[in-house]
Amino acid sequence: MGVMAQRGVAISAGRPKSPPICGVEGCAGCSWIFTGLDREGQQELLKLMRSVEYGADEAIFHEGTPAFGFFIICSGKAKLIKQGPAGKRQILKIVGPGELLGEENLFDGGTHTASARTIEPTRARFIKREDFLDFLMRYPTVALRLAEKVARELQSFQAKLIETAYESCRARLARLLLALAEKYGTVEGEIQARISRTDLAEMAGISTETAIRTLGEFEERGLISLKRRKIAILDRTRLEEVATPLGAEPIENLL
Amino acid sequence: MIKISFLLDLPQTSKVSTLIPASRPTEYYNRMTKAQELSHWLSSLEPAARAAVLAKAHMLILPPQTEVYAQGDPVDGIYIVVEGVVKELAAREGCLRLARLSGPGEVLGVGELFSEPVQTMSAVTMRPTRLAWVSQADLHKIFAEHPSVLLWAMQQLSTKLRELRRALVETVYVESAARLTRKLVEVAERFGERTPHGVLIDIKLSRDEWAALAGMAPETVSRVLHDLERRGWIALEGRRIRLLEEEKLSLT
User: Fold this and answer.
1) Rg of chain B, C-alpha, whole Å
2) E strands of B126-237, at which residues?
3) Which among A56, A173, B68, B251 is placed 20 to 30 Å from A127, CA to CA?
4) B131-153 pLDDT, tens per residue?
5) CA A228 to CA A233: how far, in whole Å?
6) Judging by beta carbons within 10 Å of its beta carbon (0-12, 13-18, 19+), is residue A21 exposed, middle or buried?
7) Is residue A140 less than 8 Å (CB to CB) from chain B?
8) What is the full DSSP assignment across B20-46?
9) How large is the ipTM?
10) How far are the Cα atoms of A33, A95, B181 from residue A80, in angstroms, in the given order?
């Protein structure tokens, strides 16, 4: 296992999910910010939750619209997208089961600073902003963990900004593929997520043309193999060398 | 440098205490002034929570070009900018990679407070600056007694996160010359001085620092600045920059 994968494991291993709160069958656990919440707290939180369901590729909220609360993803996946100039978009992160969506807007004026859209059919729990802020005042340990989560995200975006400004498209794409493999796992090298070339490009912050050309180059060099929307990593070590040409830190929590 | 503390329990091992040069006189600084100035930036807090922060805030009065903390220093609390300008810099692999300017009302070190053992950027004053420092230990006591202060700190975090995301999208999609031009206008609006001959950015930043502020190569900064000067839109005065055609620059 390469340096990046080891660091990635260390980051995720440090934050095991909290036990399920809703008691819904098949739930593997909730966000780590709720770890250690007593029974009373769990019951209180449960009362604040409202179930919501979305189909694949449906809007959850739009950038610039009022943020009435945030979401905890129960099943499925969603992407957080920021609008750029001239209709361009940048995917900021992808969230899956047990993760939070829109939580950073709880504190800063109540407007969504990015849009969220499902990738696959998604079930989630919604909690109203005022209710949750009131809950945080009574459960400061959850508030401290949430602060840590937002602070970690801040550090990761700081690293992402440096990466975006200074590193080559090749490094960005290679790093993204490794991060996707880390997040979704691989079976015989194949990343267990179906992601379009356009989404890959938007996540890496490069043009679709460059993404397609670079993926082709990686395949030619025997680093990866491509089958429609499935990508398999064939030579992780060399892909890691491409990903960290400067030996830079890997990006935590970006996906 | 002059450091004033209203508290007797200032930890002697903290970074702040190491900032006090023995040869400089201590200047009287009115307790009421501190309360009034800081209160303004803590106005969203309820009175009891605000008083708790004020009671533990140490005012630092720093001349320009003073290092507040270095990248890699242990995190020791937060610094609320009351007056002046602070430049934050992050270096990677020995190269300057990220820069940020903070002015009154902005909070330094809040990102690291919750997640990092050490400062991820260094901070240096650019003008005569006053900072209100609250130690990490005091903050955690205040958070426990007044959870609303924790929510206030999270609001500061969210604001920084929003700014970073905006900069990220700009870095990806806005061409570097336009990015630098926008940065010039932004810095002029926040910290510039209006003169009969345009807006003067009286903050001396190197080419590398401008590059780190706008997320681009230093060579590109020189090219873009000289191009803007040729057009007569800016005047380069040593390390100071004067915006002569603010409107044209804003439209870029």
Assistant:
1) 19
2) 129-135, 193-195, 198-201, 234-237
3) A56
4) 999 999 999 999 999 999 999 99
5) 14
6) buried
7) yes
8) --TTSPPPP--HHHHHHHHHHHTTTS-
9) 0.81
10) 20, 8, 28
